[in-house]
Amino acid sequence: MTSKIKRSNSEALFEKAKTYFPGGVNSPVRAFKSVDGAPLFMKKGSGVNVWDEDGNEFIDFCGSWGPLILGHRHEGVFQAVVSAMDNGSSFGAPTALESELAELILSNNRFIEKIRFVSSGTEAVMSALRLARGFTGKNKILKFDGCYHGHVDSMLVSAGSGLATFGTSSSAGVPEILANETLVLPLNHIDQLRQCFKDHGHEIASAIIEPIPANNGLLLQEKTFLLELRKLCTEYNVLLHFDEVISGFRVGFEGAAGLYDIAPDIVTYGKIIGGGLPVGAYGASKEIMGMVSPDGPVYQAGTLSGNPVAMAAGIAQLKECVKPGFYENQQERTLYFVNALNNHAKSKGYNFQIVTVGSIFWLSFDGQTTIRESARINADMTGFRKLFNALLDQGIYIGPSGYEVGFVSQAHTKEILDVAIEKFYSAMDEAL
User: Fold this and answer.
1) Catalytic annotation on 299?
2) 0.90 exceeded by the pTM?
3) Active site residue 148
4) Which of 72, 211, 284, 414 would bridge with 45, disulfide CB 3.0–4.6 Å?
């Protein structure tokens, strides 16, 4: 089933783009490989709405993959960007805006004492892995199957066979010697976790995990598993690295660390701290961050790190997020939305449910099954593809992959969600 919306302009733009870019896109998931038709080329966004080059209007639940927690073109963020641009777009030198954003973050986060801004979540992870190795003097990294940490070479690995396997490259161009420095475990398996630390704890510099895995479905972990990971890291002098590129500032100002009240040793954040502009950051204690150049021997640099336009946007956005009741209101409206859809699915007997935490949600086509490991996700994406296209016809836009999550923004009022709920009902009744 293909969508019935007008697509001629997007199709023409896609054909042209394919002559310039691999697959016609600058990031793979945009190519609509998991769904039908040419990708939609977006033209503008405002509040909850986006418009494509064919003039189609959608209520957007993708939000640039999460960072637009206030919605598109939020007036405060927009004006902050304009004001910053009026003074210049980049200096490659310190600005007061960097310290203002850092103070806003650090004064409202119990888990980090110093921070370093970079330009993306991938760069933040790459830098944090190097920092962990430099601080501990150990080389191996433990990661978990189903967690995504950007396109860092040593993180583009998948599990082999057996217990606590050494990673195998999941991308061409990643040397096996790098993959072999990464150990891979399944999520939510405490016995395997304990055995891995027993066998390799003396070699592991850090254990990196999405505390709320949200790049391969929404794989909510039992808190007992995360607590055991924290305990073992402490016991074996391994740095616990929470990759909060998605969950940070989304499920709470302190992210999943605050939600679960578990203290990581290193945290990485993504573009939500830049109001949608290219930003990332990593933070830790003063002691650990003291290893970073120019204070210490772990080198990391970037001309666009702390870019003043991105810093200004981040300040404007996070000042809204830190206001009392912001996250409680986000969760309340998200549950209002999700519960309505789940009740409809249940009343119709659909093998479908929406999983949620904070203002993140995921469309699961495994009925009422609780999925905590990526290997248990139904690989048949036929149901998602049908629902995705039915939603487009109804004027709803979500990320074009059944493994990706959706987001509710501050701009999604209950009145707008009521409209979206009815559109979802129609799409579900057509596709499921």
Assistant:
1) no
2) yes
3) yes
4) 72
